[in-house]
Design a protein that fits this description.
It is built from 1 helix and 24 strands. The protein is mainly β. A hairpin with a 7-residue loop joins strand 16 (about 230-235) and strand 17. The chain is globular and about 45 Å long.
Length: about 350
């Protein structure tokens, strides 16, 4: 989500949305899009314990939630637990954005972005924080604040994702950098602890292409995928309305990922609005596999383009999912957003 759009949102009136209704599709009938209603910025993954886990932003932006299911389809109706709510005062008393759940050194950690409430310039202070679970089961353990992610400089940052590659744990995130006229760029660094970097971050990409700067100059919401001797980082670009879309970086599997020169940036979006299928603003994706081992793209999108006011006041960014394939060169081909209905 771009910084200017967040400013408009944070300085607006109270969020006028009701609690979201869950999709009513039974798991036995398979996946039907929209898959989970009013859940944006969704992260879905299949853990080694066999459970599928899902978290995402809620319309009220006031709490961190988690659900799980033995099947992908079952996530649509799975019981959702509130892990943690924003604080009454301080830097995490405002809105909570884009949570991600990761297992770090044997502990469940959920990263999220937050800012303070109360008006004034302080509400622009969006930073990344984490909460940690005191037990092995994230659905029953007690969650408490772990602290703030310590980036190399103090500025607007969000959308942290963690992955391991060739024995190194990395964190990739979006941040604004002084001297660069953008809302956010993508950065990568090895992760020393859950909240500290192990090296100076590498700037992987700056939004400059026409489809990355529509409305706002944005590169955010990275997601990592390793397949076919290559690694890929997808990301989201432009304003959070129907112009929102996905781009992709790629590199060789054995490359030094901290060297920005090894990354190739696609010159066209890899996933964007489909007026024909009535899916608008697809983005902030994650990757998982279904029960058959097929690669699945998880993302959010709206069923309409026309939005009254700031897009972030509109609650109807629904979580959607669909399978994807690979081209002859080994790169993922996400196709177009599928229309509402069975996947």
């Amino acid at each position: 989500m771009d910084i200017i759009s967040r400013r408009l949102f944070l300085t607006g009136a109270a969020v006028a949305t009701a609690l979201p209704a869950l999709a009513s599709t039974p798991a036995a009938k398979g996946i039907i899009n929209p898959w989970v209603r009013q859940r944006a910025d969704a992260q879905v993954f299949r853990h080694t314990d066999g459970w599928y886990y899902m978290t995402g932003s809620v319309p009220g932006y006031d709490r961190l939630v988690l659900r799980r299911s033995r099947t992908l389809a079952g996530l649509s109706t799975a019981t959702e637990r509130v892990l943690w709510r924003h604080e009454k005062t301080g830097p995490m008393s405002g809105f909570l954005w884009a949570p991600e759940l990761h297992l770090i050194d044997g502990k469940w950690v959920m990263y999220f972005a937050a800012g303070p409430s109360g008006g004034g310039e302080d509400v622009f202070r969006i930073r990344t924080y984490a909460v940690v679970c005191d037990g092995a089961d994230p659905m029953v353990g007690k969650w408490s604040v772990l602290g703030q992610l310590q980036t190399a400089w103090d500025s607007f940052n969000l959308d942290s994702t963690v992955f391991e590659h060739r024995g190194t744990r990395y964190i990739c995130w979006a941040q604004r950098e002084e001297g660069i006229d953008t809302n956010s760029n993508l950065y990568l660094a090895p992760l020393k602890t859950a909240l500290t970097l192990g090296a100076k971050p590498a700037r992987l990409t700056v939004p400059t292409l026409d489809w990355e700067i529509r409305g706002f100059k944005v590169a955010e919401a990275p997601a990592f995928l390793a397949r076919n001797g290559q690694v890929f980082i997808t990301y989201s670009a432009s304003a959070t309305d129907e112009r929102y879309c996905m781009g992709m970086l790629s590199a060789r599997d054995d490359a030094n990922l901290m060297d920005p020169a090894v990354w190739t940036k696609g010159q066209q979006p890899v996933f964007q609005s489909s007026p024909e299928n009535k899916v608008f603003g697809p983005g902030h994706n994650s990757f998982t596999v279904d029960e058959k081992g097929r690669d699945m793209l998880v993302y959010h999108g709206r069923d309409y383009a026309a939005i009254k006011g700031d897009p972030l006041f509109d609650p109807n960014r629904h979580t959607r999912v669909q399978p994807f394939t690979f081209d002859a060169d080994g790169s993922p081909n996400f196709g177009v957003p599928l229309a509402n209905g069975r996947v």
